[in-house]
Each structure stands twice: as C-alpha cells, then as structure tokens.
Amino acid sequence: MPTTRLSSPLLTAAVLAGLGTPVVAQDLVLYSGRGESLVAPLIEMFEEQSGADVEVRYGGTAELAVLLQEEGEASPADVFWAQDPGALGAVGDMFAPLPEDILNRVPEGLRDDQGRWVAASGRARLFVYSPDRVSDDEMPASITDLTGDAYAGRVGWAPTNGSFQAHLTAIREELGEDETRAWLDGMVENDTQAYSNNSSQVQAIADGEIDFGLVNHYYLLRSKEADPNFPVDQALFEDGDIGNLLMAAGVGVLQSSDDQELAQQFVSFLLSDEAQAYFSEDNHEYAVVEGAGSGNQEPSFEEVREAAPDVDLNTLDDLEGTLNLLRDAGLL
Fold first, then answer.
1. DSSP 82-147
2. What is the pLDDT of residues 28-41, one digit of tens each?
3. Interval 144-167: pLDDT, tens
4. How far apart are alpha carbons 7 and 51 in whole angstroms?
5. Is residue 151 marked as binding?
6. Which of 107, 201, 242, 298 could form a disulfide with 213 if both were Cys (CB 3.0 to 4.6 A apart)?
7. Which residues does the record give as Fe cation binding sites (predicted)?
8. What does the buried/exposed string (b/e) look like for 27-55 if buried means 16 or more CB atoms within 10 Å of the residue's CB?
9. Which domains are present in the chain?
C-alpha cells in the first residue's frame, strides 16, 4: 500500500489545532513511484535548498498512474515521479509542458517528444546470474531464450514490479502481442519463479534458489558495494536484444498543480549536478545530464546504449494493455 510522509511542520500544525487531519497545506505534493529508500534523501535536499515542504505519497508506479487518472483535475498531486516511461505516457495528457531550459538538459531519447516529462535518471534492464552454477554455454543470447529447457525452474522475474511491466510493454512493442503472449506463457510453463522485486531476485541467486534473474542493473551493484564477494554477476544479452532495454525514471508536472513554478523547480533540481551525482554515486543509476555523475557504472552507460534495442520510450504508454496481458497469463 502507498504511504504518505508528512513533514513535521504539518504534523505540528495539526496537533496545535487539535484536529485529526492536517490544517496547513503542503507547499508541494509529490506522487512517487520511486521507493522511499532510494529518493527520500534527495527530497530532503530539495526541502533544505528550497525552503519548501514536500508531502510524498509513495506507491507502485502503475498504481499511482491509475490513481492520477481516477482523480483527474481534482488530484492533489503537483508532480509525478515514475520509475518508468510507460506510466508517464499513460498520464501524459495530464502533464503541463516543461520549459525549454529544463528539456534541453536531457538528451532527446530520454524525454517526452511533446515536452511533458524528462528522465531524471537512467536504468538498464539486463540479467543477473550465478557464476558458480551457470556455464559459459548456458549464457542466454536473448531474453526469449529463457523459455528453453535449459532454464526450466532456474529463472526469476517480478511480474508485479513496475520496471518489469515497463519492460514487458517494450517487448510488446518489439515482438507484437501474439509473440509476447507466447513468451509469457512459455516462461510460466518453464516454471519461472516469481519474486516481488529486483533485489529479491539478486538475493535468491546468492541463496541458491535460482540461477538467473531479470532486473535493473543497479541492484547488484548495491549488493557488491556491501560485499565485494557477493556471489552474483550480471550481463547484457546480445546487442540489440529487447532484453537490454534502457529505461528512464522520469518526472512530470501536473496541469492541475496550483504552483507550477515550485513544481518545475523540483524537476530542475533533479537535473542538477548534485542530484545527478546522487543518482550515479549513491543509487548506481545512470546520470542523464551530460557531464554529471561519476560515470563509474558497470556496465557503463556507453555499453548499455550500444547494446540497447532501438525503442522509442514515447511509445511505451499502453500500461493497461500490459496489465491485462499479465492478468490473462495469471501473473497478477
């Protein structure tokens, strides 16, 4: 369930008023599909620098996109920060155009072609594996190989995770509905193990439960940072394979926001050198602003861009179609 973080000034005002609900409005309301442990430090930095209070509603990216559609113009949200472009596209008509000085800081392939959202950071989809239990000839060339007999019962995925759902939307775009449905059915028949998220797949490989997982690149890097001998490695599929999707965690400002200037200020902050360095150095994601971040990722941003398929992130807006496909396959 999504949670809301209320800043101490708001709570204090509510207590002083003797009411069960707050009486002082927050300066900025943020719907965040990014996890609290990943982004709360950045939000605190913004509060300190801007003097604004930020009320954050955390939740699944797809869940928050649906909530925004239900709330419409009555939504209290000023900003939506999603972990994938599919959810951003699904609510794209609710966003206000961003100013050119924000848009021009992000490469064209990592922003909305109508100027409604921008990437704040980049993530690579790839596979993790056990170097102890996987031989060289078992390394898959394509994500579609994983339906083969050699991988039966050995692969993990996270069908309820927003990143996986965005990836599946790209697979639908690349392979078509029929072939994507066949791949999903083949993975189910091959006893692919379901996990709640990316990190649990990485840990499951270390624990010997599975030998392969489909994840975002930075989860293993965090485990390796804590333990350099962590017994899991990761790799890209062959160049151009849809398994190597380069994804954007992006952000947009709601048209219904009554403080467009502050909302845009938050988006601009996420593209600042300080925030981009945080994404790169602390979260191990990819900085999207040229010259920002440490660039010490594995695989490198250049390797990922070379290996990624040519997919227009602006086309990944049929989130509902993906959710329906997952329901039909018995995965939701």
1. ESSHHHHHHTGGGBPPPPHHHHTTS-GGGB-TTSSEEEEEEEEEEEEE-TTT--GGGS-SSGGGGG
2. 999 999 989 889 99
3. 999 999 999 999 999 998 889 989
4. 12
5. no
6. 201
7. 218-219
8. bbbbbbbbeeebbeebbeebbeeeebbbb
9. 3-121+248-294 (3.40.190.10), 124-245+318-328 (3.40.190.10)
